[in-house]
Amino acid sequence: MIFRVVLIGISLVGRQILFEFNVVIINNRRTTPQFTVNNNIWIPPVPGIFKLNFDAAIDKEKSLVGFDLVIHDSKCLVMATSTQRITANFSPQVAEATAIFCGITFALVSGLSPLRVASDAEVVVNWIKKESKQFSDIGVIITNIISLTKDPR
């Protein structure tokens, strides 16, 4: 099941209920994604696995960061897409890590797992794979990504 929730016009209480609903869904669908670094050749995932591709873009002048997410199945069919834009001044690594976090969350809420995450941000992927403790702004995001991949039980 794929769904998209629009938060425009929803009260604060409604947003809190929606947030708690998404937390329950995510906690019940945790996955251990495989992380790969893109080599400029798109390869579909093996049957039974979904592939998350994404890109982050930064507009420093307007203080905007955008994320495009797409999830494919093994037959190259698009299962879900999302475009998000936030007001922020992120470094490229923070933008890529945030896109990974948003993508994994989006996949889990949409019920699209197990998941393979393909990224061209080799440094960020290596931090995630090594469960590296970063003591900077990216550290919180890396920790959140890692927590999405752990079984809470």
From TrEMBL:
It comes from Dipteronia dyeriana. The keyword Signal applies. It holds the Pfam family RVT_3. SUPFAM superfamilies: Ribonuclease H-like. This is RNase H type-1 domain-containing protein. GO terms for molecular function: nucleic acid binding; RNA-DNA hybrid ribonuclease activity. Residues 1-15 form the signal peptide. InterPro entries: RNase_H-like_EbsB-rel (IPR052929), RNaseH-like_sf (IPR012337), RNaseH_domain (IPR002156), RNaseH_sf (IPR036397). Residues 53-150 form the RNase H type-1 domain. Keywords: Signal.
